[in-house]
Amino acid sequence: MVKDTEEVSNLPDEKEGRSEPRKRKKAMYKAVRDQMDFYLGDANMSKSTFLTKKILESDSSQEAAWLDLNLFLTFNKLASMLRELFGRTDTTDDLWKALKSMTSEIFEVRENGERSVRQIRRIKPLPEQPNIESVEAKTIYVELNYVDPSTIT
Question: In sequence order, which residues have a C-beta less than 8 Å from that of residue 99 and are 6 or more positions away?
């Protein structure tokens, strides 16, 4: 009888032990999703000529072009995260699982069945690129002249 009581008392611990990896995996997936939100978000896209060019190459209408997930494996920050979290960066498998498991207001993903290509796209059209003249008009340049305190009289 004592043995049965011990087994029953261990059951909650086992359940708690199982939830830890689940929480850890969810946190890892969230970190990956957040990084992809950054890459495809308005703030980054207004400055990223590389991603903007890739989107325009895929779809000149600037609507929502689908990009191959393999492209993002070449990004140092994301590759480093995937290597640290999952131990590898040679395929899109872990990236796909992370992105597929959580929703985002910034992007959506799909697996193109005809070629088995995993893809991602921004939900909204690209942000307008700032007008160079308006940026220059709003920019303040500050020049600091160093004065050696020992020369002040």
Answer: 32, 33, 36, 69, 107, 109, 120
- State the Cα–Cα distance between residues 96 and 118, nearest whole angstrom: 7
Structure-token pair, residue 149: 């305190």
Which one has a higher pLDDT value, 126 or 107?
A: 107
Q: Which two tokens stand for residue 110?
A: 């799909």
Per residue in 20-78, pLDDT tens? 566 677 888 899 899 999 999 988 888 888 988 888 887 655 556 888 899 999 999 99
Give the whole-angstrom CA distance, residue 79 versus residue 89.
6
Structure tokens that stand for 96 in this block: 């796909």
Question: Can you tell me the distance from the alpha carbon of 27 to that of 24, in angstroms, rounded to the nearest whole number?
Answer: 5
Q: Which two tokens stand for residue 65?
A: 């072009």
Positive or negative, the CA dihedral 47, 49, 54, 55 is positive
